[in-house]
Amino acid sequence: MEITVQHPLERYIRSEKMPTTWCPGCGIGTVVQSFLKAIDELGLDPKDLVMISGIGCTGRVPHYLKFDGAHVLHGRAIPVALGVKLANPKLKVVVWGGDGDIASIGGNHLIHAARRNADLTVIMINNFIYGLTGGQVAPTTPKETVTYTSPYNPDSKPFDVIKLVAAAGATYVARWSTAYPVLLKESIKKALNHRGFSFIEVISQCPEIFGRINGFKEPYDLYLKIKKVGQIRRGISPFEAKYDWNEEISLGEFVNREEPTYLEQLEEIKKKARGEKA
Amino acid sequence: MMEKGKVLYVTGNEAVVEGAIAAGCRFYAGYPITPSSEIAEEMSKRLPAVGGMYVQGEDELASINMIVGASMAGAKAMTATSGPGYSLMQEGIGLAVATETPVVIVDVMRAGPSTGIASKAWQGDLMQARFGSHSDYEIIALYASSVQEAFDLTVEAFNLAETYMSPVVLLSDGVLARMRERLYVKGQDELVIVNRKKPTESPENYLPYKRGDDYIPTIANFGDGYAVLKDSLTHDERGYYYERPDIQAKFVLGVTEKIRRNASKIYRWQEEYTEDAEVLFVASGVMGRIASVMVREARQEGKKWGVFRPISIWPFPEDALRRAARNASKVITIEMSVGKLVYPVKWTLRDGQEVSVLPWLSYEAPSPDDLLNLLEVKA
Ligand SMILES: Cc1ncc(C[n+]2csc(CCOP(=O)(O)OP(=O)(O)O)c2C)c(N)n1
């Protein structure tokens, strides 16, 4: 007897694209699951969702989700997403990217989207390394670890990206890890409903590359490390948060405030240009 | 309210803005760079008033990618740049090619290489317009020579982009950008405006990258309910990435053949006195205009000269040039460059026909007499 079991989130998935390219034990799937549960619980119409990503393992997310999507250039997901949002404001536009994609090659777009309070949700999956290209150093790689292009440890200290986006003016900033999928889901719900720029960093495991090079034998070992180093802190500012591989990577919601969004500001400009009262 | 035709006295840059708005452009993203900046300035003033949006990108990478995104969601979108900025945009132009997203990129050519001289014209980007992004692709590039043509070709650039689901480059230069002439802004009733086709199939049966007889796919906009995937990776008819030789071949043929097979509908050129021309001058943009005055004057002295001005630099109007040059023993390109146009001219003409370039290496537009002098020095 053949038993077919349907995944409860199947209707959001391009099943014909399965299996994914992600390695066994990779954390990206956990984040995607939290995301799909979030949109399911919010009852969002799939027709209103657009997924935009750059290049990288995380960049592959739009391939598997049955929403409008674009898998664009390395580093350029944010400007593409902003163009989409401005051209059709009724769409909810979500950017997916790795730490290299978002914070290195795309770093300038990240800070300007935060400054503008661009009406986007950015989910940055930080696996401490360039995964897709086989394990090179990232701007997030901790000093204590190695990669294939930093065999003697990274030459400089890592970015704490939440501080960067908070300083640039982001109005929703949170960091979670794959060890807290439910808290992550709740945070994604807030981000999707947030007016303006919302940014969520997810600390995630890359067991095949980052794990192996750094002596984590099994995916589970790296997962446990991530679980242990991630400490939930409530009510602290992003500038008090820690990004320290040995001590603590602080998790939680660090910024959540209301400000005029980019779209709202552009609408104001339209009124002025037409000589209407703002 | 239907916009009526009107007469203005404006620069080439302003004419581009008039053309874009008339064509239905409602999204502009750009980064300031001389001599294109007046396009951005004018757009920032005009677009919001007609319900559009202007964004000053944080750089050219942002700008080109923003217009690609806006077009993916259905807007007619444009950017304008020059020299260094155009170089930065090349990867994004490739994205528009691969995802088959219509956008218009205005390149106001300036003196280079590198930063060169910001405010001065040059004609050095013709090959970059064709080959600037990596790997195999075809593109449409039109080059205007007058303020009126800057308007007309901007409208055409949008129409061609929407028709062929392709980026279209509108070439201008530092002379045209700031040259002031009479412009007739056509009314909406006098203009032909093309809008991209929308799919009619149900989402279940829809294949965004399937090609019809004309080789052009019908790609849904975001928000149309088709869950369409637009990928910079090699993709099949569904838009899905697979690493397979047949899919790679089809992908490359798709984005090249859709232009090649329709080239005869895209070719645009102008020619004068070519029927019996023994010497044929080939020149584009502002140099084409000056060459044409030079040839007209030479005809009055009985010289059997002709002039051919390609307007679509890409695809290059090969058949028309071959016809125009059929009686010519000498074909000379006149360029504000050491020679770019000379390459497609050489590829096009038969072996044995003498093709050379007359390089005008000053950024100030020459007079027809300047060109005659230069010719004599060369001869
Ligand atoms: C312009 C450009 N430079 C480099 C690359 C090669 N490249 C692809 S993905 C990537 C980095 C991937 O790392 P990250 O963004 O952290 O994502 P991950 O794969 O770890 O999810 C690089 C360097 C590219 N595709 N384009």
Write a structural description.
- The complex is a heterodimer of chains A (278) and B (379).
- In chain A, the strands form two sheets. In chain A, strands 1, 2, 3, 4, 7, 8, 9, 10 and 11 form a nine-stranded mixed β-sheet that branches.
- In chain A, helix 1 (28-42) crosses helix 7 and helix 4 crosses helix 5 (107-116).
- Chain A has a single domain, classed as 3-Layer(aba) Sandwich (Rossmann fold).
- Chain A has helices spanning 28-42, 61-64, 77-87, 99-105, 107-116, 161-168, 181-193, 207-213, 219-229, 262-273; strands at residues 49-53, 68-71, 92-98, 121-126, 129-130, 136-137, 172-177, 198-203, 230-232, 243-244, 248-256.
- The mean pLDDT of chain A is 97.
- Chain A has 278 residues and is an alpha/beta fold.
- Chain A is globular, with a radius of gyration of 19 Å.
- Chain A has ten helices and eleven strands.
- Chain A starts with 27 loop residues before the first helix and ends in a 5-residue tail after the last helix.
- Chain B is of the alpha/beta class.
- Chain B folds into two domains: 6-185, 3-Layer(aba) Sandwich (Rossmann fold); 272-378, Rossmann fold.
- Helix content of chain B is 38%, strand content 22%.
- Chain B has helices at 12-23, 37-49, 60-72, 83-88, 90-99, 126-131, 147-164, 174-178, 245-260, 263-266, 285-300, 318-324, 342-348, 368-378; strands spanning 6-11, 27-30, 53-56, 77-81, 103-111, 117-121, 140-143, 167-173, 180-185, 229-231, 269-272, 279-282, 305-310, 312-314, 330-335, 354-359.
- In chain B, strands 2, 3, 4, 5, 6, 7, 8 and 14 form an eight-stranded mixed β-sheet that branches. A five-stranded mixed β-sheet of chain B has the order 11-13-12-15-16, with helices on both faces. Chain B has a two-stranded antiparallel ribbon with strand order 1-9.
- In chain B, helix 1 (12-23) packs parallel to helix 2 (37-49), helix 3 (60-72) runs parallel beside helix 5 (90-99) and helix 11 (285-300) packs across helix 14.
- Chain B starts with 5 loop residues before the first strand and ends with a helix.
- The model of chain B has no long low-confidence stretch (mean pLDDT 97).
- The chains are: A alpha/beta (278), B alpha/beta (379).
- Strand 2 of chain A pairs parallel with strand 10 (229-231) of chain B.
- Thiamine diphosphate is lined by residues 55-58, 74, 98-101, 127, 129-133, 138 of chain A.
